[in-house]
């Protein structure tokens, strides 16, 4: 299976590409924005393609050549304003969904925000609400796309070493989760058809990631 990782140069994306390359039967294709980012992925043996999420749908569709599944890990980042949040986290996600449809790539895994309900938008701090709103509508677009989607809602992300132990459910209490563990959840998710059509939250817990994902079967 060839997996396109959108936002591959991000903290989760980099770890996911590495994990894909270490998994038999999987090959990563890293979608990145800058030529200077290529060497990291080439050293892993991964394919790369330079495409910006602010490009048009037809340009983004080119990234889907010889791809079986896509994992969207991109985000505008905490240092940007609401304008970039809307252009990347909402419009970039929507354009990637439309590109997948054009390329007839059915499997689509989305990294979202922990809680993207309407209530979460209303209760979020003013600086964070545009991000939650962007993810809210991107999630809706994906659900309505007809693609074989899974939406992953991670808790508060940390750079701690992964434990390989998580709690996964449609609704869990807010807590932290290492990015490394989220990358492993994404790796397992894209290989597990039982997660298709589902959305779940993930935090650190006491269940192995494989067991947690397998429990959805």
TrEMBL record:
Source taxon at top rank: Bacteria
Classification via InterPro entries: NAD(P)-bd_dom (IPR016040), NAD(P)-bd_dom_sf (IPR036291)
Domain NAD(P)-binding: residue ranges: 7-191
PANTHER family per the UniProt record, alphabetical: FLAVIN REDUCTASE-RELATED, UPF0659 PROTEIN YMR090W
Protein name (database record): Putative NAD(P)-binding protein
Species, as recorded: Paraliobacillus ryukyuensis
Higher taxonomy: Bacteria, Bacillati, Bacillota, Bacilli, Bacillales
